[in-house]
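Q: Here's a chain of 472 amino acids. Please give me its 3D structure as tokens.
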Amino acid sequence: MLDIRQKQYFKDEESYHRGMKILQEYLKRDASNLSFSKMEDVLFELIDDTTNDMDLLERSINYRNSLLIEKGHDPYSKQLSVLTDLVARIQTSAVQTLDTKEVNGVSLDDAFEEFINIKKINWKSVGGMEQTYRQTYFPILKEVFGSIKTGDLNKSHVNELIRIVQSIPSNKSKFKEYGQLSLRDFLNVEVPKNRRLSPITLKRYLGQFGTFLKWLKSVDYSSIDLYEPIKNVKIKKTRSQDQKDRFTKEELKRLFNSDDYMNGTHSKASHFWVPLIALYTGARLNEICQLAVRDLYEDKSIKRWVFNFNEDTSEGVKKSIKRTHHERLVPVHKRLLELGLVEFLKKQKSNKETRIFSDLPYVSDTNKYGDKLQRWFNRTYKKNCDLSNEKTSFHSLRHTVITHLVNEKNVDPNKIARGFGQSVVGGVTQTTYTKNLQISEYFQYFDKINFDDCFDVKKIRPWTHHKFNRSQ
């Protein structure tokens, strides 16, 4: 708690302790025998922020002077007098910055290349992190910071970066009115919130920028903590249950009894199969799209057809599983068997394909096979089937099936967590027990998935009569 005198100079305990720490560190150096310029160097070394720390130091000086005057003696009077002059000089100088201290400043490009070469040693070869940095994160840093040496970067540059990233649309090229604008233009352009980066994406962007900026200081390419402004950004978290809506029964009917499904107009096999697999497995988009032919098979021990979601890249398939518990077996639902999924698999094998959905290209920018399909789904189905709810997307299929089992079939979420590649809610005992469940114990719950009251599976035209098969 601050006493009455402290409250006259500081707004809270944190600012009091920060200001007094700087002052005490300066006095410890016993700078009375140093030249004015050397004492200035000491001050630069201790202070990290011209707009905040300098103000705190000035308040600390005044606070300490008030104590000394009251006590009638001033053992640091000379030092405090010189320090007061230093503070005044820095505050009134229009060109003085805290980067006066010599650092090993290099060009932003050179620093970035060194950063990549060091960091990529620990990145997965198929993780796409290097390309994401090169094609997504660094171009933003480069455009905002310009051709600046790392030693000249200060927190005002970082604060500007934060404001810009908080303001830009999630997909600039998608909207004509933003296409010709530079990033800096968005400081003065109001972008609707529903067009900006989502909280999750914003957090990811700032996190990767922060990693690079922290590294600059760790290798002495910057003398100040450029990460601090990012660290202090508060991002309002969206609860997972509020991020995406599930599809309603009417929306599922419009989707799976649409003209495309009923009249056989799908031009790609993935367009036909992937949404259906998502609905009956709850699997993530890229998990489905990267399936290898050998990942769909009949498990002789349990006499069930299964999907094996894994990270096995031995056949050249660039798979990516974010977390180890995402690897799992999921049963093939009877509706998928009725629709001829096994027969489609045999066709892919006869064509010597290594991937089930060989029509989907690998998009290195996003490290996904599902990138093109997601764009197609949002562009085609959401429009043609009147799926106008902005809080629905392909991921809503996963949300739909999980909610269906928990709310409509009264299944304990912990019993199905493993099958959906989710973390189990509960303590160590609960988690360990669930990990060791036999697959047959959670398979039974996938058999409860039933959307027959939402759409008529019999109205779906067999895959053999769809455009993608007829054209071959």
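Q: Can you summarize the key feature?
A: The first strand starts at residue 296 and ends at 299.
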